[in-house]
Queue: 3 jobs
Job 1
Amino acid sequence: MSKFNDRVFGLVMLVIAVAYYYGATQFPVPFGGSEAVGPETFPKLLAVILAVCSLYMIVKPDADNPWPVAQTFLELGIAVVVLVAYALLLEPLGFIISTMLAVGTLCWRMGARPVKAYLTGLISGAIVFVLFTYGLELPLPLGLLEIN
Amino acid sequence: METLHYLSLGFGVALQPENLMFALMGCFIGTLIGALPGLGPANGVAILIPLAFTLGLKPETALIMLTAVYAGAMYGGRISSILLNIPGDEPAMMTCLDGYPMARKGKAAEALAISAIASFMGSLIATIGLILLAPLLARFALTFGPAEYFALFVLAFATLGGITGKNPMKTLMAAAIGLIIATVGIDLSTGTQRYTFNVLELYEGVDFIIAIVGLFAVSELLFFIEEKAGAGREMIKVNPLKLKWREILSIFPTTIRGGVIGFIAGVLPGAGASLGSFITYTLEKKIVGKDGYFGEGDPRGVAAPEAGNNGASSGALVPMLTLGVPGSGTTAVLLAMLVSLNITPGPLMFTQNAELVWGVIAALLVGNFMLLLLNIPLVGVFVKILSVPPMYLLPIVTMVAFVGIYSISHSTFDLYFMIAFGVGGYILRKLEIPLVPVILGLLLGPEMEKNLRHAMQISDGDWSILWSSGLSIGLWLVAIIGLLLPVIVGPILRRRMQAAKSKVG
């Protein structure tokens, strides 16, 4: 059992704690002079707590959970890319088309057959669109489907 | 007497047609959320919050709906425990032990019905407990000053990991991460910009609803992809129900014991529903003794943990409503709803927002009856939906989360933020750093800092004010015990729960 994860994460958090503390010392003195507890006091306190926890993790790490192997890792990457693309394309392509693509791809990658997957995406997207636009009167972007 | 007066006021709110309708809807959705493995109650409630916003619901209606979802989820958890041998949510784990064997013997319908009745009894007992205890605790909490509140917040974090928590340092770290994220934005009392890096979107701070939905919904999707659990599992067919009154009456004492113990476990910091159902099950086994055939489909083994976890979930509302300090993930999410509706949780809520609080409590009672009715005749509907494999379900749930977040602000920036939180949540879960303290930190951060400031202003910068009164010393002590107890008792309890879990397989 390696104990790599906790050590690396602890180290990253330690760096963040130090940077966070430094950031707190850089706040401008508030208007009207400083008080006993200024805007920097609480962050400084938190930075110390975070640093202590990080050090503990570095010194006494737990055993690692296995990270996904290459293939699964790729699938996870695809899922994240799909989500980002979904957010990116939501407005230009419109809700229904982008949903069909995003939900469809996710279903497909999780093991559904492509036709069924994209059909699920299309139907669920269309239902939610109708529900929001007409039922709740909260228009979602129509994008490409918009008729001028 | 006063309580009765307020309670009737509450029923006045809960029985309004609109509120009744949303309560029913909440019960239905909640049962569904509970039943679906991979869509836990905290996750489900989180996804529904933005939708409640966009619907423009009144605060009491929104809260009634979400509380109904919360109560429903506890009912639903048992369905997949019994039929699939996978707990729909964590507290339903103990229900697998006898529920699944019962279903295997061709008594699935009986197991479902008994567990529904047990859930009902557990909830009923605990809601009565809530009605009796909450006003008392609220009145007591009115004596709290800022120093006591600060100590109380520390206590909340210290006990959040629970007695069964693995590594208290990781709980603490998670809390610190949440609190740190909460400090981003313009400082409310001085106007100083903190950690905004001149990004306009960060001036108002990080919206905790976005963070919650990301941490729960998106990270759950990633976990399912990793585990390749998309296809789902074989389900046991439900037989026609044949239940005699005698059988129902025979589990009555079990459900009463379970409800009471569950309620206590729910109220106490650091115990929670999972431990509640574990204790009720083990205790029931001891009480019944040799007559029982626990682990092989004893109805009492189904009833006890179900009454226990429903009791605990109502009990967990006590600290959330009276002190503004939630003891579990789902109550933390409910608190998020309150905070974003601009209602300051805590003891004052019982006087200032009496209609809301008592409306919600009354709705819990009404909802409990609805849930019983929903869960006995309509159980077939839930079973149908449960057979939809996760590979279709999870992408759709993620889409609903997207729509919810998008419709709050119509900004894609928020969506990126949500995805980032989802990836972060995945990494934290991999490292076994719990997510709930992160959320609680995000939620309580501003209040905690405010109370620290008030206390220090009163004492003119003397830190010892934080532990100067008897009450605050008591709170600090409990907090310290809460951190140390998992190290001492935790391993023993965890091993026992693990042993129970491995039987589930």
Note: Residues 30 and 72 of chain B are 4 Å apart (CA to CA).
Job 2
Amino acid sequence: MTELVETSSAPALSLGRRLEIVPIVLFAAFAAAPLLAMLSGAEGYVLSLLTRVMIFGIAAMSLDLILGYGALVSFGHAAFFGLGGYAVGILASHGIEEALIQVPVALAASALFALVTGAISLRTKGVYFIMITLAFGQMLYFLATSLAAYGGDDGMTLASRSLLAGSTALENDFALYGFCLLCLFGVYAFSRSLVVSRFGRVLRGTRENALRMEAIGFEPFRYQLTAYVISGMMAGLAGCLLANQAEFVSPAFMTWQRSGELIFMVVLGGLGSLHGAIIGAAAFLLLEEFLPEILHMTSFFLAEETRSHLAENWKMVFGPLLILIVLFVRGGIMGLLRRPRHG
Amino acid sequence: MTATLLFVQVLNGLQFGLILFLIAAGLTLVFGVMDFINLAHGVQYMVGAYLVAAFSAWTGSFGWALLLALPTALAFGLLLEALIFRHLYDRDHLDQVLATFGVILFLNQGVKFVWGAAPLSVPVPELLAGSVEIASGLLYPVYRLAIIAAGLAVAAVLYVLVNHTRVGMLVRAGASNAPMVSALGVNIQRLFMVVFGFGAMLAGFAGAMVAPILSVEPGMGDNILILAFVVIVIGGIGSIRGAFLAALLIGLVDTVGRTFAPNLLRLVLDPAAASQTGRAVAPMLIYIFMAAVLFFRPSGLFPVKR
Amino acid sequence: MNVTIKTLGLAAAVSLAGLPAMAQEKLKVGLLLTLSGPSAVLGQHARDGFQLAVKDLGGKLGGRDVEVIVVDDELKPDVAVTKVKGLIERDKVDFVVGPIFSNVAVATHKPIVDSKTFYISVNAGPSNLAGKSCSPYFFATSYQNDQNHEVLGKVAQNRGYKKVYLLAPNYQAGKDALAGFKRHYKGEIVEESYVPLNTLDFQSELAKIASMQPDAIFTFMPGGMGVNLVKQYRAAGLADRIPFLSAFTVDETNLPAQQDAAIGMLSGSNWAPNLDTPENKKFVSAYEAAYNAVPASYAMHSYDAALLIDAALKATGGKTDDKDAVRAAIQKAQFKSLRGDFKFGANGFPVQDFYLVKAAKRPDGKLQTEIVEKVFDDYTDAYAKECTPTN
């Protein structure tokens, strides 16, 4: 019980450039999606779904940064979602709708929260770390439910989306989509450069063997805390975007179930590749959205009543699907992509 | 009045704590001995409650229902072990988390599929249906006292099993060094099965015991699972003694704190602010408590030496 | 692999969006309800009520064949927002019917109303949607959230209770409930006790109640919390000594679990299964035959929602293009509501009667709520005057 993550999944470096095709295809697909959305005739719906995918992709990627590269399993990551969302919501309710103010405030709040809770949490290891981050997440959740002035448990609706440098451009679904894509790409590029930097190598070193890192003169705590703060800020940014996408914030953003979902997205996609987290988020959300319909469509040979019964009980299919993925596909969806190349 | 209230609260705290202990005991053993994170432990508690509801509707007797539910819960636990969990022991923790989460999704929906979404009810057994008057006008149900007694009895049995039997010795040895136990020629696979089945049965027992006083509904195991994790982490993973103490502490902090937090705050704040803050703080108490414990003892109160 | 998933999703969206264009004639109604999690039973009543109505109306609403699309909001407001966008833009529904919970209503109100789709609530009636944020596209066949609580406040006042103990979960709806109770109750409140949401054990509160000896308690404990509170209140021997007034706590969704413990407990409602109108009798027996459960008010509201749509579209000749005409037709719709008297106020919420109801056992052994007395006649909610329909 010393390491939480097996040390085998040494990321992309050794497998070389061949895998670079995955993120390229991924971002190309995101860039092309608006065109398809226009063709579908339900552009608002498709865009809002894919915007959610990208937002959760950012959050999952932020978690992958500390989980996949630092073996720090944060079970309270949804708290940053909430911080970002509430920064937007609370400022907007006081008439400050400018994203250029909201986002920095959200990032600062996330950084501060991550700094304080991270400094305490990092005293612990393994499952104790999981549970202490859960504790801080829960505290923030209950704090949000008690904010009567901001809707308490019901949350609050935003009057409009954030202004961007004074313009109302984000009201347009395409513009919001584009903005989220830009954020996703920015966060991805930043994270990539971070993990290949000296900082990233030290962070991976702390995952492999903290003692040795200490022996050669690095203080793991400082690196881990920095990574935790950066990760928290990224998730906070995702929270700002989610508030704008849903035009709504509520404590439901930061339940422990939501934190759990983020972990599942990362594991589902495959640890320690960053774009794996985005793919995991996409797979999770799209399955959640379409599994009922897929079940309904593929069971056309059954009676209508049984079919809608099946669609309603989609979780009875989703659950075993997750189990099967774990049992038979090592390393999540990225593992599945990697395998045939190995021959 | 305050003294009676405190007394009632302590009783409630004890009862809640002992229920938590029944669930946490299995969880901490499975985690400590097998190094296996079983999120599906909470649904085993739910399954226990549903089984007792189904059997008591069938037999019309709580006693018979309990007798039938326990072996069924055990069999169900072993079935899950053989079908799924066995293949996860050598995986890393995150794989275990993901797969057992899949089990939660399936079973939460599954009980709804079989028994419907509406909460089920189990009548309190005739024999224990009465109440005792513990203060003027306040009756305390005998059944709750029975839960306390049953919880203490299970704790005592566990203490003897773990500390004074051969299996118990192996379990303790397994908690501190499983590969070594295996190297010494013990059939570790069988030991795992015993531990797992026993843990599942304890969780099922907890579910069965609370069925008459709480509502039996899909998802009832989710929140209790989180609390059980809080308990085993505070207690120190793998430590039955730690789980026992931590469960009682959490039970007391939650129930007693809920009532007295506003009263205490009233000493430093005006009544309106105290009640407002008290309401906000009350649900956070156990988490604040856990964070504080882990701050000072990063491996829980009774870390198992390894 | 990721591409496959994505294009699969898009293909599904594209194909599903493409289909309805051909079948223009069908009326589409989206049901947005909570169908998973511990509160799923409320959503099931509403879904079944609506589908029963569609069946009773021969599969047609306003003379048009109808397709009912049921989606589960999972009680997550942000999930609900995306599902609603799917209903509106992909499925092109003409009406959204639902939801159960106020937080879902608040979150989905804007996207639905902004798209000029009619939104008919079958339970949630948060105060801002009845007042300041009211919309010409939002109607409720239920009530404003406070009203059932007001019934009990009025009853407590009428019966001359001097001291009342209040108990609610610590969240917005809980606070609103107690505020609603206090609107008509002017006596002493010995304690306002808030417990954390999803509390399952009430022994400490019961101890306080026993020691304070109030004339009555009023509580709002929906779902599993209500099941537990009622059973524990009975077991503590308080039920026969201190009257138990509640709303959304003792109803047909909880009674199957509360059983005999609930008998005699009082509640406030705009309807009860034994309400004596021929339509209601027929509805209750048909519902029981089809779904093997006594219907709760959620089923009634949603049955009425279908009748409402049917009546409104009959008035417009089945047309839904002219929004103003549809709105006027809904506002004035003539249909036989299961609850008897029914008309809409200016804010889109009903002006209706409210009753004190009591849980009772029927001769066949099933439990239901039954009407004790009428408390309010043609009652308008307290927020209607804040509503100035502009947009």
Note: The interface with chain A takes residues 1-3, 5-6, 8-10, 12-14, 16-18, 21, 35-36, 70, 72, 75-78, 81-82, 85-86, 88-90, 92, 102-103, 106-107, 109-111, 126, 170-173, 175, 197 of chain C (CB under 8 Å).
Job 3
Amino acid sequence: MKRLTLPNGLRVVVEEYHSAPVASVAVHYDVGFRAETEDRSGLAHLFEHLMFQGAQDRDGDHFQQVESIGGFCNASTRQDYTDFYTVVPAEAVDQVIAVEAARMRAPKITARAVRAQTEVIREEILGKLRKPYGGFPWPRLSPVLFRDFANAHDGYGDYEALLNVTVDECADFFTRHYGPGNAVLTVTGAVRTDQVLDVVHRTFGELPAAPVPARATRWEPEPAGRVEGEHVDPMAPLPAFAIGHRVPDPAAGFGPHFAFAAVAHALTGGSRPRLRERLRAETGHTVTFSARMGLFDLLDARDPDMWILTAIHPRELPAERVLAAVDAELESIARFGPTLEELARRRTSWTNTHHRAMDEPAQRVRALGRFEVLFGDAGTVDLLPGLCAAVTPEDAAKAAAMLRADSRALLTITPGAAR
Amino acid sequence: MNGLVDRTLANGLRILALQHGLMPMVEARLHLPAPCHTAADLAASMLLSTGLTLSRDAGDGVELSAMGDVHRVAVSASAALTDLDLLLTALADVVEGAAGDLAIARGQLGSQLRVLGAHPDLATRAALARHLFGDHPVSHPVPTPDEVAAVTNAHRPFSARGAVLIILAPEDPERLAELAEKALGGWRPSPGAPLPPLPEIGTGRLAALSQPGAPQSRIRLRAPAVAVHDERYPALFVASNITGGYLSSRLARSLREDNGYVYGIMSYFDLHPGRPLFAVEADTSAATTSAALEVMGAELHRLTTTHPPTEAEVRAARAYALGSAATRLASRAALANGLADLAGRSVDPLLLFGFTRRLETVTTEEVVAATAAHLAPARFSGVVAADPGALPDTLSLVP
């Protein structure tokens, strides 16, 4: 893997991975929905859509340019980054790099596109939220755990607020956040590093440097006591809840995040998860649990991120009864740790899953770029299995002890339909 | 093809073993014919699948899941290459059809089905199947929680006849096939009666599914298509891309980029066994439903009459199709899924490998002809699930 920084500040990561005749290109911009202001909830997401209008000096939009050379592309907006990624047949990698550089130089943003994409986003939000358990746990849990707008608000966006977005605002957002110094370019696949760098210098290397925005801290105090929220979901057939907990800053070390992930797995993963087994033994009911470290994914955001557990449970079993089981198991792990066998199983399943994910071109390029943009080193991706394996029962016990009932967000979902 | 072993055992099992990639893991897919003639059959098959999934822990080295539908049980398994023997033992165990602890499986599946049943997509899917296929077993795509609760015995040994094992690893395929044969050669065939053939779907039949208060409508269209082995298939495949198969397509341009009516629109081949269909689907808010249907009808009309696919469109759509054969099947898991998907639709999986060669020779004339012959608005039947107030007075795609 080769990592370097161009004179204009663009960080570049190139990795040769000769498994299939394809190449992947990702551009991660160091701006996510936490950068939005209160009157423009969803602007980062809208801007992500607008980048697909393509570049001012090119015919056709971004989809047409990428698809006509045999590739596919997509993008996502997360807390602290927005990533654009493309997978193409290997021989087309030069063209994709040029296309990405062109839209980083001058995207084609028109009033018509702003209107159309605002409508597209409205349809996207309808599809994501107006279904059983839509928006559960994200984005509904965030405003329960967090007070600060940056952390608490809904990153999908607020359609009403987006209706007033102007082209000038978009241009301003672009100038502030989409310069080469605020971005990471990652290229991986069946490529030659020297050839890729050659093209990168001739394309991205020609872009002028731009001021890089100062990184804002998003830290806020942890909740004192249990903070609660409720959502009535008219389509949900069963009651549910989610709990969210603050976790230490990942920049201080990735180890604790793997320890929190190990706790999540002991509680809800594998074929005999502790929580399901306990509740079945004690009540005869089956509860569907899921838990993870990270609002979207493990190590996918800077501080503050959250540890999440969700449960969909029968009406006969009150949420407080299920929560009591969660706290009993957390206490057990905090006192005795998970067993060595539990940790070994977790290591095996996580490592296999990780290797399979990294064999998928889009996931691989996105992981490399994300670790570079968030934590300053794409090479960390190769160290993750080792970090997973290094988790000790004591590490997991310490993590479990931090998931305290008196500092937690609780979101309950109440089925609204009469059944 | 290099690195491929294609072997059919005496018991009927077909083994496709491929040498693939670098990462030291093995991917396996097992297609198990399991025709479900009744709702009770389907409930038992899905319960068995859930039981098979729950009885394994990925922490033991083999990640395994099984999914049942009206036609089959599809098993997916992966493991580190060093655990190849474990993986094959697990598959040999699966084909015995022993469900393990039914109580856990019943609780889990029951809860999944309640959630799934509350999703308007499921009602739409079932209504579409009923509309197209009448009382054929496929019209009952998912059992009810009560049907699952009524299952007392989910034990069901699978038939080796018609089963297909797809196994990929960075490993000599002869050795893979031999080990697989050793693990599964003793499996006895016990064929179940096949489902009756699916009827023709008819054309031009659009029906409304009333979903009062639905904020978003679901448009689900189907037209008769041609089978994968048919010589017209590659041209119709390119035509599908031009119609709605990618973001550069006519329908995506018009409905999404120009009008903002939809987030996603797609056209694809919905390959029911023996009954290949062409699908167009989109979701749009109640307020834009009539307009979206009108635009869809108008675009399909233009495409098949006044404004047929152009040379440039065919070139781009073909390039995309050829590129996708590399990009969408690049990972070992994706390639395994692609092969298994064809097996599950009673299509020879090896057609996947010859497909790029067939695509390369497709001409614009063939695409224009395929478009005109298959994609006229009058050929589509389907369902629009919507709030009754969101629908036009007459439900029709024909402008």
Note: The two ends of chain B are 48 Å apart (CA to CA).
